[in-house]
Amino acid sequence: MRGGGVRALWAGNPQAVVQRGLLAARSSSWAVVLSGFFEPVFYLLSLGIGLGVLIGDVQTSGGTEVPYAAFIAPALLAVSAMNGAIYDSTWNVFFKLNYGKLYEGMLATSLGPLDVALGEILYALLRGLVYATGFMIVMQVLGLNLAPTAILALPAVVLIAFGFASVGMAVTSYMKTFQHMDWINLVLLPMFLFSATFYPITVYPEWVQGIVMAFPLWHGVELSRGLTTGILSPVMLVHVGYYLVMIALGLLFTTKRLRTLFLD
C-alpha cells in the first residue's frame, strides 16, 4: 500500500523502469533503433564534407573561423542526442500510455509516478547518449574535434538528451491520437533547420535571432559547438541553465500528469 506525501510520488526505484525498457529492447529490431543515428551522419557527409569544399571556413558566434564541416558537426551532435531522446520519450511512451496500458500496472506496484517518469526519461536518455557517442566517434575519425575540450561534449549531450526526453514525455502525456503525434514533427523540423545548425545565427534579422535563441536545440548547438571547437565563454553557463530548467519542468509536469491520469 503506497503511503501519502512523498511516498505517493517516489519509491526510489526508477531503475526498475529502465531495466524493463532494456529487456523489451532485446526483442526490437536493431536496424530500426540505429536508423536514427545515421540521419545526422548522412547530413555531415553530404553537407559538411561535400558542400564544405565549396563554402570553406565559417565564422562562429565567438568570431573564430572554422572549417564548415567542423561548424555543423557539433550541431548535428546535438541533433543526434535530441533524436534519440525524443524517439523514446514520445512514440514509445505514447504507445505504452494509450495502447500498452503499461503505466497502470507499474503504478499498481510500489512505484510512484516520479519513479515511472524518471525511469522512462532515463531510458530515453540512454538512446540519445548512444546516438551521440557514435556520432562523436565519427567526428573524431574525420578530425572534426578541434580542441581537447571536445571530450566534455559527451556530458553536454547527456544534458541535452535529458532535457528533450523530459519535455518530450511531458508533452506526450497529453497526446490522445496518432494525429496528435504529428505535431511533434511539426515542431522538430523547423527547430532542426533554423537553430544555427547549418549556418551562423547572424544571417537572420535581429527579431528572428530572438526567436531562434528561444529554441532548446539552439542552446544545445551552441554548447556543443563551443566545446568541440574550444571556443569557450561564460554564456555556455546560460545554455546549461536552460537545460536544467527544461529538465526540472519536464519532470514536474510528467509526474503531475501521471498522477492525474492513474492515481487521482
From TrEMBL:
<feature type="transmembrane region" description="Helical">
    <location>
        <begin position="183"/>
        <end position="201"/>
    </location>
</feature>
<feature type="transmembrane region" description="Helical">
    <location>
        <begin position="121"/>
        <end position="144"/>
    </location>
</feature>
<feature type="transmembrane region" description="Helical">
    <location>
        <begin position="150"/>
        <end position="171"/>
    </location>
</feature>
<feature type="domain" description="ABC transmembrane type-2">
    <location>
        <begin position="31"/>
        <end position="261"/>
    </location>
</feature>
<feature type="transmembrane region" description="Helical">
    <location>
        <begin position="231"/>
        <end position="253"/>
    </location>
</feature>
<dbReference type="InterPro" id="IPR051784">
    <property type="entry name" value="Nod_factor_ABC_transporter"/>
</dbReference>
<feature type="transmembrane region" description="Helical">
    <location>
        <begin position="30"/>
        <end position="56"/>
    </location>
</feature>
<keyword id="KW-0812">Transmembrane</keyword>
<keyword id="KW-1133">Transmembrane helix</keyword>
<dbReference type="InterPro" id="IPR013525">
    <property type="entry name" value="ABC2_TM"/>
</dbReference>
<comment type="similarity">
    <text>Belongs to the ABC-2 integral membrane protein family.</text>
</comment>
<dbReference type="InterPro" id="IPR000412">
    <property type="entry name" value="ABC_2_transport"/>
</dbReference>
<keyword id="KW-1003">Cell membrane</keyword>
<keyword id="KW-0046">Antibiotic resistance</keyword>
<protein>
    <recommendedName>
        <fullName>Transport permease protein</fullName>
    </recommendedName>
</protein>
<dbReference type="Pfam" id="PF01061">
    <property type="entry name" value="ABC2_membrane"/>
</dbReference>
<dbReference type="InterPro" id="IPR047817">
    <property type="entry name" value="ABC2_TM_bact-type"/>
</dbReference>
<keyword id="KW-0472">Membrane</keyword>
<keyword id="KW-0813">Transport</keyword>
<feature type="transmembrane region" description="Helical">
    <location>
        <begin position="68"/>
        <end position="87"/>
    </location>
</feature>
